[in-house]
Design goal:
With 129 residues, the protein is mainly α. The protein has a single domain, classed as Rossmann fold, CATH 3.40.50. The chain is built from seven helices and three strands; from the N terminus they run ααβαβαβααα. Strand 1, helix 3 and strand 2 form a beta-alpha-beta unit. Helix 3 packs across helix 6.
């Protein structure tokens, strides 16, 4: 991590670096939500991991977050500090209200469902040829 970032980290933030799957699952189990600030995320797997744990997401209104997140699981915000702060405050009021919708959304994005839909698409294309 660059020294500039190290100096600017507030005391309530910890930079953990690369995590194992077990460490990630543990953190998702005990967090209140997830904030994603990347402006050019292609898909957004990390928010889906958070929703699988029933946690709401705050994400920049761009890229893959628009595809994987829904209004009942996420607040999409402009990449602006005040917008992110406002979203954190809003979600913090009752983060548990998002739990069921988050888990349901994560279930919709499973590998099994993806495989089934790809197979269906391939069959429909080959059948019309």
């Amino acid at each position: 991590m660059p020294k500039k970032i190290q100096v600017a980290i507030p005391p309530n933030i910890a930079y953990l670096g690369e995590l194992t799957d077990a460490e990630s699952c543990d953190l998702f189990a005990y967090c209140k939500g997830l904030s994603c600030t990347a402006k050019a995320e292609d898909f957004g797997l990390t928010p889906l991991e958070a929703t699988a744990s029933g946690k709401p997401v705050i994400a920049v209104d761009a890229g893959g977050y628009r595809k994987t997140m829904t209004p009942d699981t996420c607040i999409l915000v402009q990449p602006d500090v005040q917008c992110i702060i406002d979203a954190v405050r809003l979600i913090s009021i009752n983060p548990d209200q998002y739990h069921d919708a988050c888990v349901a959304r994560a279930y919709e994005c499973t590998v099994t469902r993806f495989e089934r839909e790809i197979q269906h698409l391939v069959k429909s294309v080959t059948a019309s040829s």
